[in-house]
Amino acid sequence: MKDLFGEIPQRKLYIRTSNGRFANAEMVRIDKARHDAEMYKKMYFSLLSTTIGLSKALRRKNQMIYQLATTLQADAGKALGVTQEGTAR
């Protein structure tokens, strides 16, 4: 590149890691991969904690529905006079 006074030397490009340390291209690639891995690990664990909570709530809901259904069947059977074996008294 030239200006009025002649040739302008190219500025040297210094490569740095995410910490701000000087590095070569391979160290930058490794640092970026490590940073991405940490980010995806955090995303995975946050999603996992959400799904664990949802699965617990679904399990409790299914338990409550099952208990309600069995008590309703037992109450209906008692009202009709049916024993556990399914025969009438």
Mean pLDDT: 85
Percentage of residues in helical conformation: 55-70%
**Secondary-structure-derived class:** mainly alpha
- What does the overall shape look like? rod-shaped
Radius of gyration: 35 Å
Biggest sheet: strands side by side, in what order? 1-2
What portion of the residues fall into strands of 2 or more residues?
Answer: under 5%
Distance between the termini: 106 Å
Number of strands: 2
* Secondary-structure element series: EEH
Give me some keywords for this one.
single chain, 89 residues, mainly alpha, two-stranded antiparallel sheet, 1 helix, 2 strands, 63% helix, rod-shaped
Task: Explain what the structure shows.
This protein has 89 residues and is mainly alpha-helical. A two-stranded antiparallel sheet has the order 1-2. It is rod-shaped, with a radius of gyration of 35 Å. Helices cover 63% and strands 4% of the residues.
Give the topology, please.
Blueprint lengths: L1 E2 L2 E2 L17 H56 L9
Antiparallel strand pairs: 1-2
Task: Provide a short characterization of the protein structure.
The protein is mainly α. Helices cover 63% and strands 4% of the residues.
